[in-house]
């Protein structure tokens, strides 16, 4: 599953890495941006692996959590959307990813702002989301259901392997 597709850069990478019969559920509130990148996904021959759904991710995750058939049904989830909901996503994704499966949260270094002093000048959106990312990082570190590893590449990606 991917939450936050935009024009499909990470989606294409995942689709290329999957076997021929692999499937990705791709969620984004904006289909127009997905359609900008879709010709490239088609040219790469992987469009058949993607099930794109337009709309906010949280209600769809709630629907899946309500259906036990979806529990433990995902091998990998990449989360790269609105940071103010990451913790809400995690609360649901932990049921949907299988034991041994991985959830990746992008931007967990959040522009380096997490270690900035309170008086540091930060761009408005960086300051707004900062506390949500801090809260997520603390919750993941304390969550006994996952083993985590934060990769200091780009803006930071935290990989969480579900262990129970
Ligand atoms: C940083 S971009 C994703 C970039 C993409 N993963 C890539 O590699 O190019 C964030 C995306 O999250 C989407 N988004 C924001 N809020 C969302 C929500 N509540 N549910 C689903 N997608 C959302 C935005 O529309 C935007 O396309």
Automatic annotation (TrEMBL):
It comes from the Eukaryota. This is Uncharacterized protein.
